Amino acid sequence: MASKAEIADFVRQQFPQTRCIIEQVGKLSATVKHPIGPEDLRPGGTVRGGIMMEVADVALYIAILGEIGIVPLTVTTSLNINFLRKPSATRSIVGVCQLLKVGRALVVGEVALYSEGIEDMVAHAVGTYSIPPQR
Amino acid sequence: MASKAEIADFVRQQFPQTRCIIEQVGKLSATVKHPIGPEDLRPGGTVRGGIMMEVADVALYIAILGEIGIVPLTVTTSLNINFLRKPSATRSIVGVCQLLKVGRALVVGEVALYSEGIEDMVAHAVGTYSIPPQR
Amino acid sequence: MASKAEIADFVRQQFPQTRCIIEQVGKLSATVKHPIGPEDLRPGGTVRGGIMMEVADVALYIAILGEIGIVPLTVTTSLNINFLRKPSATRSIVGVCQLLKVGRALVVGEVALYSEGIEDMVAHAVGTYSIPPQR
Amino acid sequence: MASKAEIADFVRQQFPQTRCIIEQVGKLSATVKHPIGPEDLRPGGTVRGGIMMEVADVALYIAILGEIGIVPLTVTTSLNINFLRKPSATRSIVGVCQLLKVGRALVVGEVALYSEGIEDMVAHAVGTYSIPPQR
Fold first, then answer.
1. What is the ipTM of this complex?
2. Which one, A19, A29, B64, D69, has the greatest CB density within 10 A?
């Protein structure tokens, strides 16, 4: 298992490309936050689907690293997302991940996505990650 | 219906946030290309899942605009993606969309994703878009 | 909205093909149970995927009827399921549905599937239903 | 690899529960057919979702056995299906599977579903199977 501080260090050094900020890790779960600016919008003044999928994907990755330790080559094998409500164009997107199963080779988890500070879920994702055999 | 030039104009003016370039539109299909640089990678030196999902999402959007005309508020309702092979860290990601059904309210299509110039598919997505009622 | 008794009546008369039994309906949720016998198994002595998908699909349908009333032509538009653990070959499959969004035209919900009496989830599904326009 | 006759023998002996009939196997593909009778319908006189998901699931299984040989414990890990058009209430459902990737541990394929003899696809599925490690 890896702590929030260890994962934050790893992300800072090995994954500076992501704009997701780790808020919480542990107990088969993680919460990440992604700031939203004009560059993250699509026509209609709403958040681009790709940004929300990125948040879901990273929330899963962080929750898994929290559970199995820093295994960088853990990779997404599938992701399914349903968009439920129009997110705010000015609030951060928050992704709350809960892992459903941590197997030897595959991990499955779900992610609830919110516009920060608003109760109704804006999207819901379920994803699968593959853990490399020799770790 | 909208031509490639009309859609490219619309994207330039209303959706400058996307880095996807339109290659082809028409006959229930579209091809888009997304350049890949260091900022698009994740640990392991492969392309971030979020970037590939963005390409799938935009390829669907472009194919739909090609079919129904410029209806900006056509929005993704769901997307499912399977990652098949590790994409190249230096080649553009190409998304080839084929629409499977264009209904009154919902459109469904699939997208094959490639590293440019390499034959094997790196990911495969299926997505659904909702068309607003009064257009 | 429709009560459990009204939906059970409707299912008895209009949907006798299903072997799902309604256990609970209401508050954006439903629980259904499907008995498992030798005819429901696949090689390896586990429950056929098709049976678990049927339970997920019917649990969603019942939860939606509970919310919007008896609208028989409410139909599935998509379903995504992840299989997590091997279900018991002799226990009923229980599907617990929670709706995530009830829109004007689309409803999205998730379903947790269990072998009756065993705590760990055996599968998790997310599905979308379309509500016909004139009801 | 296994031939159509070998797989048909295996299905007859080990998987008599399925009503799917194998039509073709080979070259990363398979076609199966499922007869439709009144017991397979749902309210609205259309085919139950569970039946179409069963056909997709079995078509994938048969295509995989054709590729990797008779490995009975190859099991579904996920399935995503989109329903496109109302299937005929009286025609068989035909599932045409094409595998997209056959990996060491995971196989991904897509399935086009039809009402027999009608050109337009009624549903489209993508599924993932896990191959057991020691085979």
1. 0.96
2. B64
